[in-house]
Each structure stands twice: as structure tokens, then as C-alpha cells.
Amino acid sequence: MKIAFAGLGAMGRGMADNLIKAGHALTGFDVNPAVEGWLTGRGAAFAPSVAAACAGAEALVAMVVNADQLETVLFGATGAAGALPKGALILSGVTVPTEAAQALGARAEAAGYAYLDCPVSGGAVGAEAGTLTLMAAGSDAAWQAAQPLLAVLGRNVYRLGDKPGAGSTMKMVHQLAAGCNLAVAAEVMSFGAHLGLEPAQVLEILNASAGASWMIANRGPRMLTEGETASSAVDIFVKDLGIVLDAARASRFPVPVSAAALQVFLGASGAGFGKYDDSQGTRFYEALGGKPVRKT
């Protein structure tokens, strides 16, 4: 397929690379100009705008940060609408509120496109390995058109409904679990360090015991670093847990654990570490007087 790809950050690069390796003709766009050399080095093309990337494409994959960026990619002055041929697929892997997925999906379908609401989980490692979990919702036409892409991008592919929105709802629920688990990981590592335990040994014992979790195993080693290079940033969980709390407020459903977890990421972000790796929720506890988990 001829694919346009918008958003080539930590997640997008791994996904795009796998599509290129699978033989798809890919043209990418990102606001970071360094992406051009990365793309051309892999035999793909770089476009100066989303619209230019979409010319003649059969599908657009969007992997930007939030709903505002996704709207700009689709309907901005140099966005996909009008440039992407009618009938083409739009696959959105962006984590957005359910209402945004529904609204943007409806606009895209009204403009003549097949829209698949398809947020992903698995991190940069999963993106690079092609083992992501994909949570898809969209029409039969969108689902069928996406099959060649989904087969490359993910190991666990789920269809949650025939209209955009259900995929984003599932991703929100997933991020509740991920964010709360990560906040607990930050707290237990910080508490152990504050009490004088060696963080690396705390991590080793946790991973061998009943207190283990995927988040502790995955993020724990990164908590021992400065975390300046982000696979997923602290501010991502500020956004995603914010989505959870907004949805909970609207539906009158209590989420007290999520509310507490959000404070960890807000505190780390407020202390100046919003762009750091999301393992650095530990900086919240450090700012409160806790001993560093990282090896300074």
C-alpha cells in the first residue's frame, strides 16, 4: 500500500519502520526536521506537510500526541482533508477522549474517508518489534482496509465496535491501569530508597516476588537513570489520567486511585520533569524530600 504517516516520534518511528520493512511505500511527515534523514535512510520519503504526504496515498496513519494535534493533521490548513484521495483509510493511533474520537471520526467519514479509531499499547519497544496491542473501532470498510497495516503493527488486535469511539474508551481504561501501576512503582521505589535500601536491589527483589508488576519490571530500570531520554514522557500520563478523570466526572463514576496517581505525574511535571521519561514520577517524591532513586 501507499501510506502517509504523520507523527514519527518514539512510537511512530517503530511503527513506520515495520511498515517500510513489510514493503509498503511510505511517505512521512513530522515537525522535527531530523526525521527526513531517518526516513530517507530507510528508503522512504519525507514530505513538507501532511497534505503533501497524503497525495495519492491509500491510507494515512496518525501517531501524534493529542486530540488538538490530530485535528490539525486531519483538518488543518495543510492537513489530510482534501489531499488524501476519497475512500482512503485514516488509521488514528492517537490516545484521545472518546468524544474526540467520535467527533473526528464522524467528520472524516462525512468527508469521504474510512476512519479507524485504533489507539495502541506496548510502548516504543512494542512499536519497534511489531507486537503492539491495537484497540480498533470503525466501520466494516475501515476494518477491512486496515488489515494489511494491523497485521504488521501488532500482535494482539481487537475490534471493539463498528463506530469510532470504543477503541479510545478501551485505551482510556487501559491507561487508568497503566498510570496507577506506574505511580505505585514510583512510590515503592522512592519509599525503599528513602528508607536506605539500595534501589537496584529493591527492584530485583520486587521482580522476584509477589509485589512484581509489568510496570515495575519495565520502568524500574529506567528509574535508576536520569531519564532525560523519554520513550514515553511524564506529561503523557498527565494527559491520559486527565482524560480518565474527565470521563469519570462526566459519567459520575468514582476513580479515587486514578486521582491520586495523577498527582504523582502532576508533581513531577510541575517540578520541571514533564518532558522526561515517565519513569521519573520518582522526582515527585524527591521534590518532597525523598532520597533519589536514580544513580546520580
Write structural notes for this entry:
With 296 residues, the protein is an alpha/beta fold. It has 2 domains: 2-163, NAD(P)-binding Rossmann-like Domain (Rossmann fold, 3-Layer(aba) Sandwich), CATH 3.40.50; 169-287, N-(1-d-carboxylethyl)-l-norvaline Dehydrogenase, domain 2, CATH 1.10.1040. The chain contains 13 helices and 9 strands. Strands 1, 2, 3, 4, 5, 6, 7, 8 and 9 form a 9-stranded mixed sheet that branches. 49% of the residues are buried.
Tell me how many strands there are.
Answer: 9
Report the oligomer.
single chain
CATH architecture of the largest domain: 3-Layer(aba) Sandwich
What is the beta-strand fraction?
A: 5-15%
CATH superfamily of the largest domain: NAD(P)-binding Rossmann-like Domain
Helix residue percentage: 40-55%
Shape: globular
Average residue pLDDT: 97
The poorly predicted ranges are none
Could you describe the largest sheet, including whether it forms a barrel? 9 strands, mixed
* Number of domain modules: 2
Furnish the topology, listing elements before pairings:
Layout: E1 2-6, H1 10-21, E2 25-29, H2 35-40, E3 45-46, H3 50-54, E4 59-62, H4 67-75, E5 89-92, H5 98-110, E6 114-117, E7 120-121, H6 123-129, E8 132-138, H7 140-153, E9 154-161, H8 166-194, H9 199-207, H10 214-223, H11 234-251, H12 256-273, H13 282-287
Parallel strand pairs: 1-2, 1-4, 2-3, 4-5, 5-6, 8-9
Antiparallel strand pairs: 6-8, 7-8
Helix pairs in contact: 1-6, 8-10, 8-11, 8-12, 9-10, 11-12
